[in-house]
Protein backbone atom coordinates (compact mmCIF):
# COMPACT_ATOMS: atom_id res chain seq x y z
CA UNK A 1 0.00 0.00 0.00
CA UNK A 2 1.13 3.59 -0.47
CA UNK A 3 2.76 5.46 2.43
CA UNK A 4 0.71 7.87 4.56
CA UNK A 5 2.04 10.67 2.35
CA UNK A 6 -0.36 9.38 -0.33
CA UNK A 7 -3.49 9.53 1.82
CA UNK A 8 -5.95 12.29 1.06
CA UNK A 9 -9.62 13.07 1.54
CA UNK A 10 -12.63 15.13 0.54
CA UNK A 11 -12.13 17.68 3.29
CA UNK A 12 -15.21 19.62 2.21
CA UNK A 13 -17.03 17.01 4.31
CA UNK A 14 -15.29 18.54 7.35
CA UNK A 15 -16.07 22.11 6.32
CA UNK A 16 -16.73 24.24 3.26
CA UNK A 17 -14.28 26.78 4.71
CA UNK A 18 -10.81 26.27 3.23
CA UNK A 19 -8.91 27.10 6.42
CA UNK A 20 -10.91 24.47 8.31
CA UNK A 21 -10.36 21.94 5.52
CA UNK A 22 -6.63 22.53 5.86
CA UNK A 23 -6.79 22.28 9.66
CA UNK A 24 -8.81 19.04 9.57
CA UNK A 25 -6.27 17.56 7.15
CA UNK A 26 -3.41 18.49 9.45
CA UNK A 27 -5.29 17.22 12.51
CA UNK A 28 -5.28 13.77 10.92
CA UNK A 29 -1.58 14.17 10.12
CA UNK A 30 -1.94 14.44 6.34
CA UNK A 31 -0.89 17.07 3.83
CA UNK A 32 -3.24 16.50 0.88
CA UNK A 33 -6.86 17.31 0.03
CA UNK A 34 -9.04 15.88 -2.72
CA UNK A 35 -10.49 19.19 -3.88
CA UNK A 36 -14.20 19.53 -4.43
CA UNK A 37 -16.23 22.30 -2.75
CA UNK A 38 -14.85 25.55 -1.38
CA UNK A 39 -17.67 27.67 -0.04
CA UNK A 40 -20.67 26.92 -2.22
CA UNK A 41 -18.78 26.16 -5.45
CA UNK A 42 -16.69 23.37 -6.90
CA UNK A 43 -13.03 24.31 -7.19
CA UNK A 44 -13.22 24.52 -10.99
CA UNK A 45 -16.26 26.82 -10.75
CA UNK A 46 -14.84 29.43 -8.36
CA UNK A 47 -14.39 32.97 -9.71
CA UNK A 48 -10.81 33.46 -10.86
CA UNK A 49 -9.78 35.76 -8.03
CA UNK A 50 -11.21 33.35 -5.44
CA UNK A 51 -9.41 30.41 -7.01
CA UNK A 52 -6.10 32.28 -7.02
CA UNK A 53 -6.55 33.06 -3.32
CA UNK A 54 -7.33 29.39 -2.61
CA UNK A 55 -4.24 28.26 -4.50
CA UNK A 56 -2.00 30.71 -2.63
CA UNK A 57 -3.38 29.62 0.74
CA UNK A 58 -2.87 25.95 -0.09
CA UNK A 59 0.72 26.70 -1.07
CA UNK A 60 1.33 28.61 2.15
CA UNK A 61 -0.08 25.72 4.18
CA UNK A 62 2.00 23.10 2.36
CA UNK A 63 -1.12 21.19 1.28
CA UNK A 64 -1.18 19.47 -2.10
CA UNK A 65 -4.18 18.60 -4.30
CA UNK A 66 -3.72 15.21 -5.95
CA UNK A 67 -7.29 15.08 -7.31
CA UNK A 68 -10.14 17.27 -8.49
CA UNK A 69 -13.55 15.83 -7.61
CA UNK A 70 -15.13 17.55 -10.58
CA UNK A 71 -18.72 18.00 -11.72
CA UNK A 72 -17.85 16.74 -15.20
CA UNK A 73 -20.47 14.31 -16.55
CA UNK A 74 -21.57 13.58 -12.98
CA UNK A 75 -24.83 12.15 -11.64
CA UNK A 76 -26.34 15.65 -11.66
CA UNK A 77 -26.28 15.85 -15.46
CA UNK A 78 -28.15 13.69 -17.93
CA UNK A 79 -26.84 12.59 -21.31
CA UNK A 80 -29.34 15.05 -22.80
CA UNK A 81 -27.59 18.05 -21.20
CA UNK A 82 -25.75 20.54 -23.40
CA UNK A 83 -22.24 19.19 -24.02
CA UNK A 84 -20.94 22.76 -24.10
CA UNK A 85 -21.48 22.82 -20.32
CA UNK A 86 -19.03 19.93 -19.98
CA UNK A 87 -16.51 21.48 -22.37
CA UNK A 88 -16.57 24.75 -20.43
CA UNK A 89 -15.94 22.86 -17.17
CA UNK A 90 -12.95 21.17 -18.78
CA UNK A 91 -11.58 24.48 -20.02
CA UNK A 92 -11.81 25.92 -16.50
CA UNK A 93 -10.39 22.83 -14.78
CA UNK A 94 -7.23 22.33 -16.88
CA UNK A 95 -5.36 25.54 -15.98
CA UNK A 96 -6.36 25.18 -12.35
CA UNK A 97 -5.06 21.63 -12.18
CA UNK A 98 -1.78 22.84 -13.66
CA UNK A 99 -1.56 25.69 -11.17
CA UNK A 100 -1.97 23.24 -8.27
CA UNK A 101 0.12 20.42 -9.73
CA UNK A 102 -2.93 18.13 -9.82
CA UNK A 103 -2.71 15.13 -12.16
CA UNK A 104 -6.06 13.37 -11.61
CA UNK A 105 -9.61 14.56 -12.23
CA UNK A 106 -12.66 12.51 -11.31
CA UNK A 107 -15.28 12.32 -14.06
CA UNK A 108 -18.40 10.24 -14.58
CA UNK A 109 -20.54 8.99 -17.47
CA UNK A 110 -23.69 11.08 -16.90
CA UNK A 111 -26.71 10.14 -14.83
CA UNK A 112 -28.38 6.78 -15.19
CA UNK A 113 -31.59 6.79 -17.21
CA UNK A 114 -34.41 4.67 -15.73
CA UNK A 115 -33.56 1.01 -16.33
CA UNK A 116 -35.24 -0.35 -19.44
CA UNK A 117 -35.14 3.00 -21.25
CA UNK A 118 -32.64 4.04 -23.93
CA UNK A 119 -29.33 4.77 -22.17
CA UNK A 120 -27.80 6.48 -25.26
CA UNK A 121 -24.55 4.54 -24.84
CA UNK A 122 -22.93 5.73 -28.06
CA UNK A 123 -23.41 9.38 -27.12
CA UNK A 124 -21.90 8.70 -23.69
CA UNK A 125 -18.87 7.06 -25.33
CA UNK A 126 -18.50 9.93 -27.79
CA UNK A 127 -18.55 12.53 -25.03
CA UNK A 128 -16.17 10.62 -22.79
CA UNK A 129 -13.69 10.17 -25.63
CA UNK A 130 -13.61 13.94 -26.04
CA UNK A 131 -13.37 14.54 -22.28
CA UNK A 132 -10.46 12.11 -21.87
CA UNK A 133 -8.65 13.44 -24.96
CA UNK A 134 -8.81 17.05 -23.79
CA UNK A 135 -7.22 16.17 -20.47
CA UNK A 136 -4.68 13.70 -21.87
CA UNK A 137 -3.57 16.27 -24.47
CA UNK A 138 -2.55 18.42 -21.49
CA UNK A 139 -0.76 15.58 -19.68
CA UNK A 140 -3.63 15.08 -17.21
CA UNK A 141 -5.60 11.93 -16.38
CA UNK A 142 -9.39 11.64 -16.33
CA UNK A 143 -10.51 8.89 -13.94
CA UNK A 144 -14.05 7.48 -14.04
CA UNK A 145 -15.86 6.74 -10.78
CA UNK A 146 -18.35 3.89 -10.29
CA UNK A 147 -21.03 6.20 -8.95
CA UNK A 148 -24.70 6.80 -9.88
CA UNK A 149 -23.85 7.06 -13.57
CA UNK A 150 -23.98 4.72 -16.57
CA UNK A 151 -20.65 3.10 -15.72
CA UNK A 152 -21.93 2.39 -12.22
CA UNK A 153 -24.66 0.03 -13.43
CA UNK A 154 -22.19 -2.86 -13.09
CA UNK A 155 -18.53 -3.78 -13.44
CA UNK A 156 -19.34 -4.87 -16.99
CA UNK A 157 -20.61 -1.38 -17.81
CA UNK A 158 -17.40 0.10 -16.43
CA UNK A 159 -15.29 -2.30 -18.49
CA UNK A 160 -17.28 -1.37 -21.58
CA UNK A 161 -16.22 2.24 -20.99
CA UNK A 162 -12.59 1.12 -20.84
CA UNK A 163 -13.05 -0.62 -24.19
CA UNK A 164 -14.78 2.31 -25.83
CA UNK A 165 -12.78 5.24 -24.44
CA UNK A 166 -9.01 5.15 -25.11
CA UNK A 167 -6.91 6.39 -22.22
CA UNK A 168 -9.68 6.27 -19.63
CA UNK A 169 -8.57 5.17 -16.15
CA UNK A 170 -10.63 4.38 -13.07
CA UNK A 171 -11.14 5.57 -9.53
CA UNK A 172 -12.78 2.78 -7.55
CA UNK A 173 -15.16 3.83 -4.79
CA UNK A 174 -15.48 1.02 -2.26
CA UNK A 175 -18.87 2.07 -0.90
CA UNK A 176 -20.81 2.83 -4.06
CA UNK A 177 -21.50 -0.84 -4.98
CA UNK A 178 -23.22 -1.35 -1.62
CA UNK A 179 -26.17 0.84 -2.64
CA UNK A 180 -26.36 0.05 -6.36
CA UNK A 181 -28.05 -2.87 -8.07
CA UNK A 182 -26.02 -5.09 -10.42
CA UNK A 183 -27.63 -4.67 -13.83
CA UNK A 184 -25.42 -7.39 -15.33
CA UNK A 185 -27.14 -10.17 -13.35
CA UNK A 186 -30.55 -11.82 -13.67
CA UNK A 187 -33.49 -10.35 -11.81
CA UNK A 188 -35.13 -12.32 -9.02
CA UNK A 189 -38.31 -11.66 -7.04
CA UNK A 190 -36.68 -8.66 -5.40
CA UNK A 191 -35.33 -7.28 -8.65
CA UNK A 192 -31.63 -7.03 -9.41
CA UNK A 193 -29.24 -8.06 -6.61
CA UNK A 194 -27.05 -5.54 -4.85
CA UNK A 195 -23.57 -5.21 -6.29
CA UNK A 196 -20.74 -6.99 -4.51
CA UNK A 197 -17.88 -4.52 -3.81
CA UNK A 198 -15.07 -7.09 -3.93
CA UNK A 199 -16.42 -8.74 -7.07
CA UNK A 200 -16.63 -5.32 -8.74
CA UNK A 201 -13.09 -4.52 -7.60
CA UNK A 202 -11.70 -7.81 -8.92
CA UNK A 203 -13.14 -7.17 -12.37
CA UNK A 204 -11.91 -3.58 -12.77
CA UNK A 205 -8.77 -3.46 -10.58
CA UNK A 206 -6.31 -3.63 -13.50
CA UNK A 207 -7.55 -0.21 -14.62
CA UNK A 208 -7.73 1.46 -11.18
CA UNK A 209 -5.23 4.24 -10.47
CA UNK A 210 -7.01 5.85 -7.51
CA UNK A 211 -9.27 4.66 -4.66
CA UNK A 212 -12.09 6.38 -2.77
CA UNK A 213 -12.97 5.03 0.67
CA UNK A 214 -16.59 4.89 1.79
CA UNK A 215 -18.30 2.24 3.86
CA UNK A 216 -22.02 1.66 4.36
CA UNK A 217 -24.83 -0.84 4.73
CA UNK A 218 -27.30 -1.91 2.02
CA UNK A 219 -30.27 0.50 2.03
CA UNK A 220 -33.81 -0.78 2.46
CA UNK A 221 -34.41 -0.02 -1.23
CA UNK A 222 -32.43 1.38 -4.14
CA UNK A 223 -34.16 4.78 -3.99
CA UNK A 224 -33.00 5.80 -0.50
CA UNK A 225 -29.61 6.66 0.95
CA UNK A 226 -27.71 3.87 2.72
CA UNK A 227 -26.49 4.06 6.29
CA UNK A 228 -22.86 5.20 6.14
CA UNK A 229 -20.44 3.77 8.69
CA UNK A 230 -16.90 4.21 9.91
CA UNK A 231 -14.33 2.43 7.70
CA UNK A 232 -14.49 -1.33 8.12
CA UNK A 233 -17.84 -1.32 9.91
CA UNK A 234 -20.08 -1.68 6.85
CA UNK A 235 -20.51 -3.99 3.87
CA UNK A 236 -17.95 -2.41 1.52
CA UNK A 237 -15.41 -5.20 2.18
CA UNK A 238 -12.63 -2.69 2.80
CA UNK A 239 -10.23 -5.19 4.31
CA UNK A 240 -10.59 -7.62 1.41
CA UNK A 241 -10.24 -4.89 -1.23
CA UNK A 242 -7.33 -3.12 0.43
CA UNK A 243 -5.62 -6.40 1.26
CA UNK A 244 -5.86 -7.44 -2.36
CA UNK A 245 -4.64 -4.03 -3.51
CA UNK A 246 -1.66 -4.34 -1.18
CA UNK A 247 -0.85 -7.84 -2.43
CA UNK A 248 -0.92 -6.54 -5.99
CA UNK A 249 1.46 -3.68 -5.20
CA UNK A 250 -1.02 -0.81 -5.45
CA UNK A 251 0.86 2.45 -4.83
CA UNK A 252 -1.64 5.10 -5.92
CA UNK A 253 -3.45 7.66 -3.79
CA UNK A 254 -6.30 6.70 -1.45
CA UNK A 255 -8.94 9.29 -0.55
CA UNK A 256 -11.49 9.12 2.25
CA UNK A 257 -15.03 10.25 1.41
CA UNK A 258 -16.81 9.47 4.70
CA UNK A 259 -20.42 10.68 4.26
CA UNK A 260 -20.77 9.72 7.95
CA UNK A 261 -21.88 12.94 9.62
CA UNK A 262 -23.90 14.16 6.67
CA UNK A 263 -24.48 12.96 3.14
CA UNK A 264 -22.55 15.24 0.80
CA UNK A 265 -25.59 15.49 -1.48
CA UNK A 266 -27.69 17.03 1.33
CA UNK A 267 -30.17 19.54 -0.07
CA UNK A 268 -29.55 22.17 2.61
CA UNK A 269 -25.90 22.45 3.78
CA UNK A 270 -26.88 25.32 6.12
CA UNK A 271 -28.80 22.83 8.27
CA UNK A 272 -25.71 20.69 8.80
CA UNK A 273 -23.90 20.48 12.15
CA UNK A 274 -20.49 21.40 10.79
CA UNK A 275 -18.66 20.83 14.06
CA UNK A 276 -19.91 17.24 14.03
CA UNK A 277 -18.79 16.98 10.40
CA UNK A 278 -15.33 18.28 11.29
CA UNK A 279 -14.90 15.94 14.24
CA UNK A 280 -16.19 12.88 12.40
CA UNK A 281 -13.98 13.59 9.38
CA UNK A 282 -10.85 13.71 11.53
CA UNK A 283 -11.97 10.59 13.43
CA UNK A 284 -12.66 8.80 10.14
CA UNK A 285 -9.18 9.60 8.82
CA UNK A 286 -7.51 8.30 11.96
CA UNK A 287 -9.62 5.15 12.00
CA UNK A 288 -8.80 4.54 8.38
CA UNK A 289 -5.09 4.80 9.14
CA UNK A 290 -5.58 2.25 11.91
CA UNK A 291 -7.37 -0.08 9.49
CA UNK A 292 -4.48 0.22 7.05
CA UNK A 293 -2.05 -0.55 9.85
CA UNK A 294 -3.89 -3.84 10.44
CA UNK A 295 -2.96 -4.86 6.90
UniProtKB/TrEMBL annotation:
GO terms for MF: isomerase activity
Stretches assigned to the Xylose isomerase-like TIM barrel domain: 23-262
Keywords: Isomerase
Keyword Isomerase set for record: yes
Gene3D superfamilies documented for this protein: Divalent-metal-dependent TIM barrel enzymes
Stored Pfam families: AP_endonuc_2
Keyword Isomerase: yes
UniProt xrefs under InterPro entries: IolE/XylAMocC-like, Xyl_isomerase-like_sf, Xyl_isomerase-like_TIM-brl
Name recorded for this polypeptide: Xylose isomerase
Organism: Haloferula helveola
